[in-house]
Amino acid sequence: MRKTALLIFLLSIFIEGLPQSYTVDSVPNTKRINNSYVSNPDNLINATTVSQIDQRLTSLEQQTTAQVAVVLLHSIGENTAEDFAQSLFVKWGIGQATKDNGLLILFVADQKTIRFHTGFGLEGILPDAICKRIQIQKMVPSFKEGNVDAGMLAGIDEVIKILTNPASAEEIAEPVATSNYLDKPFLTPFFILCWIILGPFIFFARRKTGFSNSIQIPQNRPNSKVSKGQWWLFFFLLPILLAAYLVLNNQWILNLLGFYGYFALLGLHKYYRVITRANVWLKKGMYHTVYVFYTENSSWMGWAILFPIPFAFLVHPYKKRMQAVREHPRDCRQCGNKMKRLSEATEDEHLPKEHQFEENLLSVDYDVWICSSCNSVSVEQYVNEKTKYAVCPKCKTYAFYTESTTTLTHATTSSTGEEETIKVCKYCNNRERTTVTIPMVSTSSDSSSSSSDSGGSFGGGDSGGGGASSSW
Ligand SMILES: [Zn+2]
Ligand SMILES: [Zn+2]
After folding, report:
1. pTM above 0.90, yes or no
2. Helices first, then strands: H and E counts in the chain
């Protein structure tokens, strides 16, 4: 009898002492039990560390409302840390329900794995790559030495630093030599193959919008479109060569240069086409046509922001070139002599009232050229690209603008709405009213009920499975 009792006693000590394998349901939710952020049932870190972590995470939640749960387990059986973390995250509802700003830090001793599992609301500030870097740089080295306490504290400190000051994320340097290409060596060749098959189809589809020498393109003025040969070079051959180069090359600086060079080349060639094709028409004396062409093709100047080299250096010469074309003396069509451009002050007597009106609205600028020998007059129209005025359907003056836009009936989830637009001509007072239908409001907003019992639970946040794990 005493033997059996002893045996049971010894057995119970043995079972007690044997590290348990946890399920999501058996992990003690210490937030509920004693309002602690740290669940450490196997005593993998000491009590001092637990209280240090609790202090820091309490102050973090007070500052940012973000909730971090720390769970250290000896074993989770055959489960992966990622699946286990996701289930535990959802079960506990870590983070505020309205913000989903929870983070679960799961340490699994027998798998030698550390897992960061982020709620939706933290994925932006703690992207997977940053989680991974914190683990590799701040935690795993200590874990390898068997110092779980130090690793946990260092990792949690780094997380707190980033959550309280997102800019500090940049201080964590990129881990050395992680290569996307070598991880997925088949991906780029796959894209190349797709492009070789798809390219010709895109070429034939593209024929409808036209190449520089297509019949659909008006040939009475210059255009800046690529020719068919140039299309094959820039959008078929070069991308394939660039992709092939990227597969073989794994230095990010060279890859960056490759992309930069490619797009800069596309922009430069466009610039080159604009200039050379305009020159053909300048030789014919079509200054007005060329000026309008320059204006229509000045969007490349926006490239100067992304590609300061070379485009920032081309903006000024381009503007000077435009000015020179606009001011270049015209030849008189009647007698062939040179014409003179009148100043803004003296040109008005040659302009009809509606044109003067447009000039006052700044919707159109007119240049009046007069021949000094035969007195014939030629008027050139330059529509201001930034004007809010459009052509009036009645009097054809650029004085037609949107006076008001009113919602007559609001769109709901079950019915469409109606919007009224009133356009008025400032010159002839022509008034036009149009109505458009506003589509129904779609119902896609999901609202999760928030439950915030004071102190005793996590806030009910959700996770989309974002995060990162590291093993050692
Ligand atoms: Zn003349
Ligand atoms: Zn009008």
Report:
1. no
2. 16, 12
